[in-house]
Amino acid sequence: MSKQILSAIFLFTCGLVTQAAADTEYIVVSGGPAVRRFEDLRIPAEQHDRWWGNFIRPARVRMQEVQRTAPAGTHITWLVYRDAYVRRAAAEHQPLTQNVESVPAAYPFIKLVWFRSTDELINYINRGSVSGSGGRQMKISGFEYFGHSNKHSFMFDYSSDVYATSTAWLHENDLGKIRSGAFARKAYCQSWGCHTAESFSKVWKRKTGSWMVGANGKTDYSYMHERNWQVGLSPGSRWVR
Predict the structure, then answer these.
(1) How far apart are alpha carbons 29 and 197 in whole angstroms?
(2) How far apart (Å, rounded) are the C-alpha atoms in residues 217 and 228?
(3) Is 208 strand, coil or helix?
(4) Which long-range contacts (CB under 8 A, 24 or more apart) does 13-17 make?
(5) Beta strand 139-146 with 183-191: parallel, antiparallel or unpaired?
(6) Which of 55, 84, 153, 168 is deepest in the core (most CB within 10 A)?
(7) 22-240 maps to which CATH number?
(8) How far are the Cα atoms of 59, 63, 106, 199 from residue 23, in angstroms, in the given order?
(9) 111: which strand partners?
């Protein structure tokens, strides 16, 4: 075999290896909305999630932005907490899970993965599968969360199954189960929930090695249509890394 052919094979093979090594995964997580029968027990000024899609539409808009701006080889995965949408759909007699599934149908660059427990979410971060089988093939270059939260937890079903509380969450005490090696160096992480920067972000950095931008104070999901579906901040709140 000639030196020219060997050289061409070497360059081609190295090119494939370089391209594969550059592939990364950008994860966006959407928690679920409260059900209206629980929220109607509150005074109007304290009610959440009058619209079922609070954590769906801004996530979709953000994934479109990531797709436009991220380096080539970035794969976008959207993990959505399924049970909350099933409960809200039953209460409102709307096909909400089908509505969620219509997003990747319209935007094929988005891979939708439903999850139903904290373990499934952690499994996906660690292994790229909710079942926990196999091994992670790509480093995570970004992680963003849209949903209810407090200073210590992401709350996937706040006021969905039980009034004013959550039965499915990712607590900062769970973060030690996440493999820090799952994240790429300088991965971008952000929580769009309330109060994350007050404690959760610090533990996230310590356990995963990646900084997480979060709110010191409350975030605001109202009137997002007036600001290009961007999540806002309540008065006196600020973003902190």
Answers:
(1) 17
(2) 22
(3) helix
(4) none
(5) parallel
(6) 84
(7) 3.40.50
(8) 22, 17, 23, 31
(9) 77
Cα separation, 86 vs 90, in Å, equals 6
Q: Which two tokens stand for residue 166?
A: 């959550």
Question: Residue 168: which residues within 8 A CB-CB, separation 6 or more?
Answer: 81, 83, 116, 117, 118, 155, 156, 157, 161
172 residue type, one letter? E
What ranges do the domains of the chain cover? Answer: 22-240
CA-CA-CA-CA torsion sign (198, 204, 209, 215): negative
- If we measure between CA atoms, which residue out of 184, 57, 197, 77 comes closest to residue 128? 77
Report the distance separating Cα 31 and Cα 146, nearest Å.
Answer: 6
Q: Which amino acid appears at position 68 of this protein?
A: R
Provide the residue-wise pLDDT of the chain in tens; the chain has 241 residues: 444 433 333 333 333 333 444 699 999 999 999 877 656 666 676 767 889 999 999 999 999 999 999 999 999 999 999 999 999 999 889 999 999 999 999 999 999 999 999 999 999 999 999 998 888 999 999 999 999 999 999 999 987 677 667 899 999 999 999 998 999 999 999 999 999 999 999 999 999 999 999 999 999 999 999 999 999 999 999 999 8
Rounded distance, CA 190 to CA 201, Å? 9
